Amino acid sequence: MTDLTAGSRSADRIRDEYTAMTQRKRVYGGILLIVFVALMVAGFRTADSRNAGSFVDGWHRIFDYPTEVLSEASEKIGSMPENLVTFFPALIETINIAAASTLIGTIAGTFLALMSTRGMALWPSLIPLFRRIADICRAIPEIVIALVLIFVLGGGPVPAMIAIAIHTAGALGKLFSEVNENASLKPVEGLHSVGANWSQRMYLGVIPQVGPNYVSYALLRFEINIRASAILGFVGAGGLGYELRNSMSWGQGRYDEAAAIFLLLFVTIVVVDQISGLLRERLTHGSEKGAQA
Amino acid sequence: MSTFATNLTVDELKSEADRLFSRKRLMNFGLPAVVIVYLIYVFFAFDVPGLAGRANWENGKTLVADSYSYKTHVERDNRNGKVSVAIEGERKGAYPEGEAPEWVALGETTVIDLEGGHVVRFGPETVEYDIPDYGTVRATPTRSAGVQAELPEGEVPDWINLSKNRLAITTDAGRLTVTRNRSEVFRYFMGWELFWFTLDSPYHGKSLPQLVGLAASGEAGAILNDFWTNKMWRHEDVAWAIFETILMAFLGTFGAGMVALPLAFLATRNFTPLKSVRFLTRRVFDFVRGVDALIWTVILARAFGPGPLTGALAILVTDTGTFGKIFSEALENVDRKQIEGVQSTGANAPQRYRFGVIPQVTPVLLSQLLYFLESNTRSATVIGAITGGGIGLLLTQAIITQKDWEEVAYYIVLIILMVMLMDWFSGWLRRRLIQGEPEKKREPKSA
Questions:
Q1: Of A42, A195, A222, B378, which has the fewest beta carbons less than 10 angstroms from its beta carbon?
Q2: Both A92 and A37 in a single domain?
Q3: In chain B, whose CA is at the least distance from the CA of A239?
Q4: How far off is chain B from A293, nearest CA to CA, in Å?
């Protein structure tokens, strides 16, 4: 390459190599694209053939149900405020399930994360064990635990709360331990040298460093958990989802109630998303106000 | 902070430090206190104290016991004296007539050995149960006078349940129920019964070396077929269900990515100068996300009926909103210089996007898509439980029947493995496609 006398020849070679490389890349990219498109088409056809109704027959009917619900709801628009009030307690229950499970999951996730980070773990030899526990908690869909617990504990918010909390603990445990990896261990060593015990070292040395990130992740989880708690209600775990299933299974004539529930759920999700988005923005980028005070 | 304020007196600094300290103290104790107060409120709002009363611990016990053990029913029809043996009492697990496992001796008097000295005899008229350390219980079911039982002397222990028409004995070895029409014995075993082959398969009860030998001698296809069409565990249906669930996640995630990418350009400040278009697209994303997978599932299930397509579309619609938001944020952060560089070589608009924008955002897009592929596998399980499709449907069905808990345990294990596999796979692909690229270039040409 450094042979200056053979400049033109090496330039030729470079050009040839470059063309060959781009061609190779293009071929690889093309093959990948073809495979991907083939997978999508084949997957769609399989899903379509195994579905009760096909896509071609159904796509123009997508808006039939919403139209039905909306037209009935608009006929009975007078009862809307009343319905909103009726289902408000269910909304509170849904939010409570999400909030309580986020809190419990955050506490458990913090513990799991501390236990599975090198330099912070109370029992360093058990780090792999706690990592696997977090992995398994994360892998279990909420509905699995919820359905089993509903069978044992009966319907209601508690099975949903436990189910969501377990999943949250696993998911946050992983995210938190990634945050922990980046935390400085110097405060921990400093506290250790003055004789602080493990919980003091963690509470005073680690948590202040990682706190904002933890809260930011927990808020994101809260958004997700609101949706999860609504879905779990649908399988019998109380809250808005449960009311929605009831009003839907009544069929026509109760669509005004369904519309009220749709509205409550939609507004809640949007409001929670917006608030938590704002809070997270402030936590990650820091608030100008807070910096001056 | 007042690092640069040098004109402060010591008193002022001190009072400021005090204020800071008291605020920190308030945070340190106030925040946990708020959390505890809230949890106490939830404790009562959810009526946790009343839960103990409502909970059915008996259900819990059956669930746990059934998930790792199974029972074989030996049943005598008291009207015609016919004895049948069936695993879990299901027709699918029934032994052919006249056949029984070795611990059941069929005959005029059927002798059932429950081990540990427990023996049950179904006589022509009377059922006898020898219980060690207690004695022999005799029961004669008659059509007219119900079940006439003779117990050894003394008080009736609480594991024997006796009424006019029914006798039930539950011991560690098994369980005997005698009613007017039926005498029934349950014997419990560890493990999942008939997992590989059902009783009607010639390969039932063969050991692994035997099976390998048979497979080598040309019966591999028949062996696989018998396993695949196992009526008890339905391996074929389960495999399809897992495949459907992954299919829903795959179609939903990548479909959403393909729909969201062009829309995301419309929502960015740097590519869409028209403020109204930007605003409108963003509200569409917010709306689609806000409506949530649950409601989309309900709506789409009305149009398409239950099945994997409905689930895939529900994921697709919801994630279009999420991806639209994430992608448009990524697109707003692209470096202008690269686009200008491409433009300076005389590239037209499509070329500018292709070579100036797409390479910059591809890593972000791909990594987000692959993250969602894993989490959508879980969502697909949940959506399947609601609309009816995939492993979620099988799970809910198995739970609703309330007796096949070993199948529930099996499905749960499969779901966890499936999600972990997808997690591993998407992580591997992510490393491969995003960070693995420089390494790939160094590899020698293979084509």
A1: A195
A2: no
A3: B46
A4: 7
For A68, name the nearest residue in chain B, comparing CA atoms only: B299
C-beta atoms surrounding B301 within 10 Å: 24
Q: What is the pLDDT of residues A30-54, one digit of tens each?
A: 898 899 888 888 888 888 888 777 7
Same domain, A75 and A46: no
Count of domains forming chain A:
2
CB contact under 8 A, B382 and A244: no
Interface touch A139/B48, C-beta < 8 Å? no
Q: How far from B30 is each of A156, A157, A200, B175, CA to CA, in Å?
A: 31, 27, 18, 57
pLDDT digits (tens, 9 = 90+) for B217-250: 777 777 777 777 777 777 888 888 888 888 889 9
- Using an 8 Å Cβ cutoff, are B391 and B381 in contact? yes
Indicate the length of chain A as a whole number. 293
| 0.85 surpassed by complex ipTM | no
Encoded tokens for A99: 């909030």
Same domain, A119 and A264: yes
pLDDT digit string, tens, across residues B283-300: 888 888 888 788 888 888
- What domains are there in chain B, each with its CATH number? 70-190 (no CATH), 235-442 (1.10.3720.10)
Please state, in angstroms and as integers, the Cα–Cα distance from residue A274 to each residue in A119, A219, A267, following that order.
37, 11, 11
Looking at the fold, whether A54 and A78 belong to one and the same domain comes out as no
Provide the token pair at B443. 């590899």
**Is the domain of A147 the same as that of A277?**
yes
Whole-prediction pTM: 0.80
Instruction: Please indicate whether, in this complex, the C-beta atoms of A65 and B47 are within 8 angstroms of each other.
Output: no
A103 contacts B292? CB cut-off 8 A: no
- The whole-angstrom distance between A39's CA and the closest CA on chain B is 9
Q: What is the residue range of A30's domain? A: 7-59
Within 8 A of B294 by CB-CB distance, chain A residues are: 227, 230-231, 234, 241, 244, 265
